Automatic annotation (TrEMBL), chains A, B:
UniProt KW Cell membrane keyword: no
Signal sequence segment: none
Catalytic activity, EC: 6.3.2.2
Native species: Ramlibacter aquaticus
Name the record gives this protein: Glutamate--cysteine ligase
Gene (UniProt): gshA
Recorded superkingdom: Bacteria
Length: 430, 430
């Protein structure tokens, strides 16, 4: 089950959505059984695009920021989920250390305040230990709205990580380590460091995630009796691309063309009158950098120097070499005429809420995670809008957000598969 | 953590409440460790009275009705908790059978609709199987508000309980079996029957519950450094009372007097200028029947015939013989001038919501669970009212409902101890 939130898209529920809504008990049971075999990531956010004819995750974040964008009504769900997560990992825990991104953005710091609040209410003393070398002593920062956050320098001893006079049982990373794993975080064996370091963008690859998601969507599609393409974005990849030197452009052109052809075939099969497009992304990228939309393979050869430069570096200055070419999924959602995409937030195995990422200056086929985007919180739906067994027709309206919660959890399950497959400490039984 | 709900009592937070609020992480950790050792009841509701100087549970219901009185905002929490409960018991479950009370009260039936909705959203096919001998074929009843509920006759085979063409993994009792355990529910070994039969009022005794609660409140009081009396109602009991024949009245008089003396001493210790009172209840009773308020032991001898008759029978016509004499706890809560007491709802180990039981015609020292009572749902508190670490003084107001959630969970933990102690199938390691 997911919280019932009002979604922006008010058009009629389509066949796929109806199938998902009708299959709720079977879907929930399917997840229940999956979580018996697989461990959910500690927390996850998933960007989703709903094209009307298909619905798919486009990005799965294992170090979600933006918790401050959830409405207050979602807080108890987040806390309850945090309690469930902590119980499993370290029930005797008193102290939790959060390691944030190295930024002073007040939006990001408001996210930290919210995370601190969630875990405090779940029964932990929470302090924030920065790995930013500029934080040499505790710094307290006032935030808009009257709250405060204190960043403290992290203290590493031979065996443990903590703060001065603060020894945590669990360390929660809220930093995706795009710039690489700092030595201070390595060789921690006595404490729980979550998510594990191989979930960071210094190790993770989008293509591995979507390979896992492909597997998950096939199994889910089989259970539900639907074509997995309806929930899965097709993809290809190129391993050696250098946008500055224009190396690997043939690989890119060939793969973009091949993917566009596959998508075109699918559109024909379903009678969809839209122009297919693909999105080229850094395979190790995040935060919306190093991303471009391509509608024709010939655009690759004609790429401007400025566009090539933008693609050449992703977050934290990491050079792009491996790229993923992903089927573009249109977003049909609008808030006040601005293009929007839902973002679903999960803690442990539970959906705790969501919001819309809105961008007034971007198109329905463009990435919205870019400067100028804003966030529209999702409200809880009125009780009369909840789907309800035994209700008279018309007395209950379907809830589109349920479906977003299902897709979000499928992507989270894929991340669980992905982390199992890439775990450097996994035991191999060959 | 408990949902932050607005409480009716707006007076200043007293010392006890402040201590509880300040100790949130320690309290949550304490519960976390308790639940590692003890299994929470499947679902629980607890009536709480807040006298200002003390705060205590007065009734712990292991077959809670009234789920329909929770606001829609609490539904996701209830569903998430139901998911956690089901995962532990029978993760592969597809079907859940609910056994209701034998009543056609539309209020009660609305409760069934809500329970059905909660477990449906948690991923189960839910049907309602009545043990009422009058239900011989499926009956669909229209409820105010447009919803419907279908009651079906229960079908017992040699080994299993179900409906025609419906074989559940888990059977959820929502009937407290005050009238005794029917044979049809006995000898079920292949399916989960929850709560277990020894949680029903045909076996349960209030005195055993409050004995367990005394133990829990002592341990909790020690952890928090408070006098357990501040959260615990004192009690005595009489084993052989026959109100019709006026037998056992001396025992009652003596114990009422002794208890009033103990309470008076406590009031003196704390400088409380209230008149102590005790409540005499059927030890196996429920639903507010067989209850009287006594302010002076001499009232027992002078009991009118009508009052004696009312005491002589509790719910479902069970004769009262054992009685519990419990310290009365005033309620200081008011909604529109009517006396009110908070009722806290829990599923598995989680507080999912609450409401006020309100009675315009009852006093602050009287039982409110009586004809004429109504229910006032509790709203979620505004985010600015949440207690928050790192907030500037004045920017955050304390939340009284947190404390009610703590007391509710202490009573639930006591019920867990009680059920362990009374389990007929428990293994004894002597």
């Amino acid at each position: 089950m997911v919280p019932h939130l009002v979604t922006a898209l008010t058009g009629p529920i389509n066949e796929l959505e109806q199938r998902v809504l009708d299959s709720m008990p079977a879907i929930e049971r399917w997840f229940r059984l999956e979580w018996m075999e697989h461990t959910p990531p500690f927390y996850t956010s998933v960007d989703i695009r709903n094209a009307g004819f298909k619905l798919a995750p486009v990005d799965t974040n294992l170090y979600p920021g933006g918790w401050n964008n959830l409405t207050p009504e979602m807080l108890p769900l987040a806390v309850q989920s945090a309690m469930a997560a902590i119980e499993k990992i370290c029930p005797e825990a008193k102290n939790l250390l959060v390691i944030p991104e190295n930024t002073r953005s007040t939006f990001y710091l408001a996210n930290l305040v919210q995370l601190q609040r969630i875990f405090h209410m779940a029964g932990l003393n929470v302090r924030i230990g920065s790995i930013d070398p500029e934080i040499k002593a505790p710094v307290t920062i006032d935030l808009p709205g009257g709250s405060q956050v204190t960043l403290e320098p992290i203290v590493r001893t031979k065996r443990r990580l903590g703060l001065k006079d603060f020894d945590p049982c669990t360390i929660l990373l809220n930093n995706d380590l795009s710039a690489g794993i700092p030595g201070i975080l390595e060789e921690i064996h006595e404490q729980y460091l979550l998510p594990p370091l191989h979930a960071s963008w210094s190790v993770r690859r989008k293509s591995k995630h979507f390979k896992s998601y492909e597997e998950v969507s096939k199994r889910f599609g089989k259970m539900l009796g639907i074509d997995p393409w309806l929930i899965h974005p097709l993809f290809n990849m190129c391993g050696e691309v250098d946008f500055t030197a224009r190396a690997g452009m043939e690989c890119l052109t060939t793969n973009v063309d091949a993917l566009l052809t596959r998508v075109r075939k699918k559109y024909k099969e379903y009678g969809i009158n839209e122009k297919p497009f693909v999105v080229v992304k850094a395979d190790n990228g995040t935060s919306g950098m190093g991303i471009m939309t391509v509608r024709d393979a010939r655009e690759i050869a004609g790429l401007s120097d400025a566009a090539a430069r933008r693609m050449a570096e992703s977050k934290a200055g990491q050079p792009v070499s491996e790229v993923i070419i992903q089927e573009g999924v249109l977003t049909n959602e609008r808030i006040n005429d601005a293009v929007a995409e839902p973002v679903v937030y999960m803690m442990d195995r539970y959906v705790v809420g969501g919001f819309y990422r809105v961008h007034a200056e971007r198109g329905i086929d463009e990435n919205l995670n870019a400067p100028g985007s804003s966030f529209a919180p999702l409200a809880f739906a009125e009780s009369t809008r909840l789907p309800q067994p035994g209700m008279k027709p018309g007395a209950s309206a379907p809830n589109r957000f349920y479906m977003y919660g299902v897709i979000g959890r499928l992507a989270m399950l894929a991340a669980s598969y992905e982390l199992e497959a890439t775990d450097p400490e996994a035991e191999v039984y060959d």
